[in-house]
Automatic annotation (TrEMBL):
Residues 335-376 are annotated as: Disordered. The lineage of its organism: Bacteria, Bacillati, Actinomycetota, Actinomycetes, Mycobacteriales. This is tRNA processing ribonuclease BN. It comes from Nocardia brasiliensis (strain ATCC 700358 / HUJEG-1). Residues 367-376 have a biased composition (Basic and acidic residues). Its main location: membrane.
């Protein structure tokens, strides 16, 4: 009599040991393996989410997000001064109206992230005020001071990222503040060269395309423009996660946290815009404080998203530790070589001193019949 085949609707055989191999694993059908694998995946996902929530709560994510929002608000004008003021020196490389095009792109992109009141009452006047000063403001003492003020938000993010990975004691506090300033300057210089390419990219590509393909190519560029800009921002956030850590992780392991941060901020931004529009429609108003409060809420969720992504990366590292990067392996190898070279060699036996009569004295011969131990 032939054995009855297992059907997909049959319950899982709990009397079998596992799927690790052997006769028991071969008894499970393909559908049962899929169901069991799905249960394990859900269990691991639940554990990961719980761990991220616990770590974020223990690291005071709400307080740090509020601090990040405060410093981001104070850093807005210095940031725009640094970016748009520096563009005055390199804008001519990309075209005559580069600064104005970048300005329009910044405002249009801000409309997709923030509410209309924040853009019209806060971001647009700040951008126009910065552009009115001209590029001469970059070489002023105020610009140097603005670098320190603008790097305060970066310092908050660096502190939160290293604490999420339990590396808060790896750097000296003074050096970590200077390190945040250097990171801010690095990203500022990179943005000065990347922003014109992002703003003028569709126009430059449209000029290169043949006439027959130009219409189709421009439509594709318009369709993928904002997703491409979002991907570029996620890549930049991943780079921040990597550079902020003292003991770094592989770049691809940090990309997931940046993706989580990007998705969370986009969802929170959409919900906040709907909430602000509903508040405006109901007649509730904060008067002159409405725009700063709305901008603070947006920057709060931005800081929350960045810190949440760092906590996610740290939790993933706890569950599935990554191998050390090649740079870390090289550092460890050099440290081991230096430690092995500085180890003390075993000391040589004492050599007799010819000038010392005691050292030249020979011990008396031992009597072979004397087996009793000598007493002092």
């Amino acid at each position: 009599m032939s054995e009855k085949k297992a059907l997909p609707s049959d319950p899982l055989r709990t009397d079998l040991p596992s799927l690790s191999g052997g006769f028991a694993a071969r008894k499970l059908t393909w559908s049962q393996r899929v169901v069991l694998g799905g249960r394990r995946a859900r269990r691991r996902t639940t554990r990961l989410i719980v761990r991220v929530a616990v770590k974020a709560w223990d690291d005071s994510i709400f307080a740090k997000s509020a601090a990040a929002a405060f410093w981001q608000t104070l850093s807005l004008a210095p940031l725009l001064l640094g970016v748009l003021g520096s563009l005055g020196y390199v804008g001519g490389w990309f075209g005559p109206d580069t600064v104005q095009i970048v300005e329009s792109k910044i405002i249009s992109f801000s409309r997709d992230l923030f509410s209309s009141t924040v853009v019209s009452d806060l971001i647009e006047p700040t951008v126009q005020d910065v552009l009115g000063r001209g590029r001469g403001a970059v070489v002023s003492v105020g610009f140097v001071l603005s670098l320190w003020a603008g790097s305060s938000a970066m310092a908050t993010f660096v502190d939160s990222i290293v604490e999420a990975h339990d590396q808060q004691d790896a750097r000296h506090p003074v050096w970590q503040r200077i390190f945040a300033l250097l990171l801010y300057v690095l990203f500022l210089v990179a943005s000065v060269f990347i922003l014109p390419l992002v703003a003028l990219g569709p126009t430059l590509i449209g000029r290169v395309l043949p006439t027959a393909w130009r219409a189709t190519g421009l439509r594709l560029l318009d369709f993928f423009y904002y997703p491409g800009v979002g991907l570029l921002l996620i890549v930049g956030l991943t780079t921040l996660y990597k550079l902020a850590l003292h003991t770094s992780l592989p770049w691809h392991r940090l990309f997931n946290g940046a993706l989580v941060a990007g998705v969370f901020f986009m969802a929170a931004s959409e919900g906040l815009r709907r909430y602000l529009s509903w508040v405006t429609d109901t007649g509730v108003t904060y008067g002159a404080l409405a725009t700063p409060i709305a901008f603070l809420l947006f920057t709060y969720f931005l800081g929350f998203a960045v810190i949440l992504g760092a906590e996610f990366n740290a939790a993933v590292q706890e569950f599935w530790p990554a191998r050390a990067t090649r740079m870390e392996q090289v550092k460890e190898w050099i440290a081991n070589q230096l430690n092995s070279d500085t180890e003390e060699e075993p000391s040589a036996p004492d050599t007799p001193n010819p000038s010392d009569p005691k050292s030249n004295a020979t011990p008396p011969p031992k009597d072979p019949l004397d087996t009793e131990p000598r007493t002092a």
